[in-house]
Structure formats: structure tokens, C-alpha cells
Amino acid sequence: MQQPPKSKYVPALGFHWLTPYYDAVVGSTTRERIFKQALIKQARIEPGHQVLDLACGTGTLAIWIKQNQPQANVTGVDGDPVILSIASRKSQKANVSVKFDRALSYNLPYPEEHFDRVVSSLFFHHLSWEAKEQTAQELFRILKPGAELHVADWGRASNALMRGLFLFIQLLDGFKNTQDNVSGKLIELFEQAGFVQVSQRQTFSTIYGTLALYSAVKPS
User: Fold this and answer.
1) Domains identified in the chain and CATH numbers
2) Contact predicate 213/181, CB 8 Å
3) Which residues of the chain register pLDDT less than 50?
4) What sign does the dihedral 4-6-12-16 (CA atoms) show?
5) Alpha helices in 44-146 (DSSP H)
């Protein structure tokens, strides 16, 4: 039985009362459509793929994946029941079939070697290093051999301006856990979990700092 890491659960935008504003804030401040569509393109999801959107939030990424590849089987998972209810309503309104589950990232309710792709956006920076490690290990467990992990999250600042802007995120979400991201430690994290071909694929400048897209492969 996996022991939960010592990591405080952080809701969307840091506070439960901000959850209803999540889509508006993310959409207007992070270049959401651009970086999430780039992540979808990077993941190269094929018909029949089993796809998991880790920490799916309000379901935007999961819905766009399903719209982009209707023959994929898309599941979103998140620990917040309020935000999952928003995601469910959004998918119904978009008339797409996405399954939404409630679970925490370090204890996922899926069998070993089940998914062809795991995607995640703006999640890992919320976690302590211990929780990041356990989450990466869980993702390695549930991915099939040869399957891929694709992550969009805050990364090493591309310049001094981006580093300064990222201080707002650190004030909101905590300096200790966000420092892993801005120090470029996500590549090390995924390599320690057993992934290969781990790389930072591209970056995007936003009003809150540098967003990075990562990819990793579970060995065949």
C-alpha cells in the first residue's frame, strides 16, 4: 500500500473559492489554447489509444484531445470533486465522451501498463518533491511499454524577465515546490522514475513566466 507523501493538497488557483474562475484566469494568462494544442500535437494520439489527462482540472485538455482524436479513449482524473463536476458539465456541453475519475496522482486507480499516453498541464509545480517522485512512479506503472508521457508546466526561466514574472506563481503556489520547476528538475524527476528519451521540447513566454513542454518514454 503506497503511503501518501507529505504534500498539502492544493486546489485550482490555490484556493477553493477561486475554482469557478479557473478557466477565465488560465485562458487569459497562460496562452492556454496555444500551449495545450502544442501539447496535443506533440503527443501524437492515435485511434484506439488509451489516454489519461492527469490532474485534468475543468477538463479543457481532455475535451480538446477527444475532439482532436474522437477514436481515442480519454480519461481525466483529478482530486477535486468540485472541479470534476465542472469538467463533466463542460464535456456534456461539448458533446464529447470523456470519463472523469476522482483520485490523487500518487495513488491512481488504474492497472499496470494500461495507458498509451499520459498528458498533464500545470500540475507538477503544486507538488512537493516527494509527491512528484511518487506521481512519476505511478505514471511509469500505468503506462504501457513504449508509451509516452507529455507534460506542460512551468520550467526554467528563459530570461531574467520571465524569472521575475514567475515570482507571482511562487508566492501563490509556494516557493519550495515551484523551485523544482524553475530549477529545471522535471527532466531529472522523470529519468529517476525510469523514463527514457526525456527532453524539454519547447517553451512559451507568458505573463507569469516560462511554460515548458516535456516528453518522456517508458522503455519497451
Assistant:
1) 27-217 (3.40.50.150)
2) no
3) 1-3, 15, 17-18
4) positive
5) 60-68, 81-94, 129-142
